[in-house]
Design a protein that fits this description.
By secondary structure, the chain is mainly alpha-helical. The chain has four domains: 38 residues, no CATH class; 394 residues, no CATH class; 36 residues, no CATH class; 51 residues, no CATH class. The chain has 23 helices and seven strands. The protein has a three-stranded antiparallel β-sheet. A two-stranded antiparallel sheet has the order 1-2. Strands 3-4 form a two-stranded antiparallel ribbon. The chain is globular. 35% of the residues are buried.
Length: 621
Amino acid sequence: MTASEMAVKEKELELPMKDMEIEGETHMGLNEGGYKKPVEKDPYELADDLVSNEIAWSELSSWGRVHRVVKTCLKIVVLTCLLYMFICSLSFLSSAFRLLGGKAAGEAFASNEILQNPVAGLMIGVLATVLVQSSSTSTSIIVAMVASKILKVSTAIPIIMGANIGTSVTNTFVSLAQMSDRDQFRRAFAGATIHDMFNILSVLVFLPIEAACGALYRLTDYLIKQMNVQQTTKSAKREFLKKLTNPFTKLIIQLDKGVITKIAKGDRAAASKSLIKYWCDKGKKKVIQMPLNSTLHGASGLELFNSTTINKTITVHRKPCTFLLHDTGLSDTGVGLIMLCVSLVILCGCLIAIVKILHSMLQGRIASVIRNTVNSDLPKPFGFFTGYIAILVGAIMTFLVQSSSIFTSTLTPLVGLGIVSLERIFPMTLGSNVGTTGTSILAAMASSSDSLHFSLQIALCHLFFNIAGILLWYPIPAIRKIPLNMAKFLGNTTAKYRWFAPVYIAFFFFLIPGSIFALSVAGRIWLFIVCGLVATLVVFIITLNMLQKKAPNHLPELMRTWEWVPVYLRSLEPYDKLIVKFCTFIKTLRTGGGSDNGVSLHLKTGNFSTLDKDFTVSSIV
């Protein structure tokens, strides 16, 4: 082929290539024959579409400059208020889950016989943390139980690991607010689930090691014996963020967290108490005399009545609480449902508004400065330490706000917008895991001298578990890609089938832990049989996938692809069809019937459209 023919061929190819899209935008590269071909762009790259449409500052008039400054200041004020309400909504969501499942979580902690099984303990840690929506609360309860010698340290370690997994449900919920934009949702969901993947991978490695040789138990026991730790009389709380949010949240609802702790410690009387506070004063101790009447039988057969008194100490309260949901007459479940609905509305509304305002503000040069500052590495030769500084920042920020959920949930929308990269949020999430252990350490330091050893030991187990996870999954780039690629896979799946996100939350945080816990209650034999079968299946799938990619010629022709497996076991397409049909049926009911002509199904994208209006499955589900 001559050079002129090559040029003609290139021009013929250029025209159709302009309209091609593969996972977003494409750019042109050269193949081996010298022809231009579309090159797929990484959908997780930082956003490059934040171009400002505003007039340049130098071209504005005096009044235009004043107008822009006032407009920007108003946006900052509104953004601050929305962020405040977002954090308060997380507190309301936590209160709602505690009202709905806090007592159940306390009773689960009290099931000491079941907790002897490390797998059951792990699942209880997951479920309890999801129910109380706070790993700080669940770990503090565990520390209190260890301090009271209700739980042994070795028994509590798997529960601590489960609490690490359960705490990541909040930012996964938060990512759903960006579901309307496919690319933003892809990045946000991957940024949220990177926390899940790190925690579950760490548990899969360290739980069997702990069950086999007690590595964390032995390490922390040795350290505690070498340390000269003195008991503190104060809990030494550092609630920087709660000092700001409590004045508002306490106007709506106040909970007595001690009820859950008492139930976990086996106090049966606490099970009948409401979690909603009634009295807001500490009360005064008062000694009263209680009559103790008894009837004695004399030698002559006469009944002699003996009246004596005993002293009893009671607490007298005088100041009832005055918050909005005080003494409503509703049960804890009723108030919890109301709080759940209200908190979800506030949370979603604030997140949508925050994303919109950030998108309007972070454009042009501002976006470039923030994006480059947050995601850039340190200058050589210190670039290697950039990720570790991000870990330190995440740990410090989480310790200050006393909540890993709040810190990671605040970062999730920024990842969705493409301001913060997935590779940068990963070390900050790891640091957040370390920072949240400060709560349990402070709680342990307030224990009595006879239980300080055990309570501080379990708190250090939580710390070293997270540090061990970081040392395993972060320093080596090839291993670091494992959780990152898992999160990207989930992000791609949710971008393709947006209904997958709520299904993932339901299965990963509720159904799977609940099923494994039920198997643990049924007996270790059933648990080992089922888990053994599942593990064998997973190993078989991974091995066959590797052989299909690396050495397909060594496999039988039938097994070189997955076509021999029924489609509903290897693809989400059949389920997507069912959901699309169901949504189409709902649309038909809403419009009062009508013909299905003009309805086109796009199963791979999870969208369906009609002649007059476009709908997405995710917007209905």
